[in-house]
């Protein structure tokens, strides 16, 4: 995204003063001294984002029920990052764990969001700047808010920014945005008892909207056969963006950086590593994460000594849905097509143990089927 002009970052339109939020004195949220005629000293102690780190402190005065749960939401706490790195670190000594945590906070938690960074401004990670002249937007704009942090993979897949693939059908045909599926109930949900976004009760589920497609009356034999065994994305998603081997560090000016070895568009099917009653599938779509045993070596050697505790190929729900894909045009585009299924040759030797729960043994690859009268 192009950098914002200075006026875009500080411009407060008079119309804001006519809103409920505009009726609150500036100092009521941002602090400072309204009685001081010197603007330079009046702004002493000014808090740029009063919602960062304390969702309930300001917004909670009016939105207490929302902020009570939002304070523990995934976007604010980024709890899965902490859980994943803790699992990969394993039982390390206290000093090493402190260094791992410091590296995590410096590199893995910079994409956090606050109430203000969704509803008033762009996230700080994207350089900030008002969304609309300090107006509070109930539904954040997808292209300037969601895409600011999720633009590297998900937003491009969804909108068709990747030239070789078409947009998600929900975006292309129905002009849906992120918020049509990812509702406020999900974004604000208390996530203290979940380990990932897949475990949120409020998460999107294809079956909620496509009830008819899964019913016996729909007459779709493929759905009848596969619906309880195969996740929807396995048949209906296009290729996703996969990143490999990320290394992080600090440049001579003290600025944190990361560097990935490569990024590739591909599609891999694997075994479901974490079945639940809501997610009973045997087969799921996977995406490679840029996890690397040496990720934090610039801060502490062998800090992720239990790296193999989790797969590097993880459960994914690609935002690149099409009704017809290369896999479901005919049955044998998938059945018997060994290249689609994750195997040990798809990964480096150092990560094979980590992916033991998702890799597909040769004898489990679905066998080719005989073409039916319709050419299936």
Structural notes for this entry:
The protein has helices spanning 6-10, 26-30, 39-42, 55-58, 64-70, 74-77, 79-89, 94-107, 116-119, 142-150, 154-159, 169-174, 178-181, 184-187, 206-209, 211-214, 221-226, 232-236, and strands at 240-250, 256-266, 268-271, 283-288, 313-315. The longest helix has 14 residues, at 94-107. It has a domain at 230-376. It is built from 18 helices and five strands. It is globular and about 85 Å long. The chain has a three-stranded antiparallel beta sheet. Strands 1-2 form a two-stranded antiparallel sheet. The chain is 28% helix and 9% strand. Strand 1 and strand 2 form a beta hairpin. It is an alpha+beta fold. The two termini are 44 Å apart.
Annotate the secondary structure layout.
Elements (H helix, E strand, L loop, with lengths): L5 H5 L15 H5 L8 H4 L12 H4 L5 H7 L3 H4 L1 H11 L4 H14 L8 H4 L22 H9 L3 H6 L9 H6 L3 H4 L2 H4 L18 H4 L1 H4 L6 H6 L5 H5 L3 E11 L5 E11 L1 E4 L11 E6 L24 E3 L61
Antiparallel strand pairs: 1-2, 3-4, 4-5
Helix pairs in contact: 7-8
């Amino acid at each position: 995204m192009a950098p914002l002009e200075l006026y875009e970052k500080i411009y407060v339109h008079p119309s804001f003063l006519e809103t409920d939020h505009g009726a609150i004195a500036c100092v009521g949220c941002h602090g400072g001294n309204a009685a001081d005629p010197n603007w330079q000293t009046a702004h002493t102690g000014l808090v740029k984002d009063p919602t960062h780190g304390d969702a309930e402190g300001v917004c909670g005065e009016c939105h207490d029920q929302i902020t009570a749960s939002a304070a523990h939401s995934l976007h604010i706490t980024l709890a899965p990052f902490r859980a994943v790195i803790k699992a990969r670190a394993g039982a390390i000594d206290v000093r090493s764990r402190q260094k791992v945590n410091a590296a995590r906070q410096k590199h893995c938690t910079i994409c956090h969001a606050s109430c203000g960074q969704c509803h008033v401004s762009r996230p700080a990670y994207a350089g900030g700047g008002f969304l609309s002249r300090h107006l509070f937007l109930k539904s954040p704009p997808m292209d300037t808010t969601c895409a600011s942090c999720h633009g590297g993979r998900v937003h491009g897949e969804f909108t068709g920014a990747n030239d070789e693939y078409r947009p998600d059908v929900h975006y292309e045909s129905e002009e849906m945005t992120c918020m049509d599926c990812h509702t406020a109930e999900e974004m604000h949900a208390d996530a203290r008892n979940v380990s990932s976004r897949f475990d949120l009760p409020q998460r999107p589920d294809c079956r909620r909207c496509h009830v008819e497609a899964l019913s016996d009356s729909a007459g779709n034999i493929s759905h009848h056969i596969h619906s309880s065994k195969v996740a929807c994305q396995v048949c209906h998603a296009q290729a996703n963006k996969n990143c490999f081997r990320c290394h992080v560090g600090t440049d001579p000016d003290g600025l944190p950086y990361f560097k990935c070895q490569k990024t590739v568009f591909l599609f891999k099917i694997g075994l479901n590593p974490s079945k639940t009653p809501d997610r009973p599938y045997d087969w799921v779509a996977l995406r490679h994460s840029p996890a690397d045993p040496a990720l934090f070596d610039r801060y502490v050697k062998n800090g992720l000594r239990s790296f193999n505790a989790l797969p590097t190929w993880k459960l994914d729900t690609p935002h690149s849905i099409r009704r017809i894909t290369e896999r479901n045009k005919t049955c044998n585009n998938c059945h018997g097509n060994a290249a689609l299924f994750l195997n040990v040759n798809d990964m480096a030797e150092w990560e094979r143990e980590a992916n033991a729960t998702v890799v597909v043994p040769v004898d489990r690859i679905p066998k080719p089927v005989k073409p039916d009268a319709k050419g299936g």
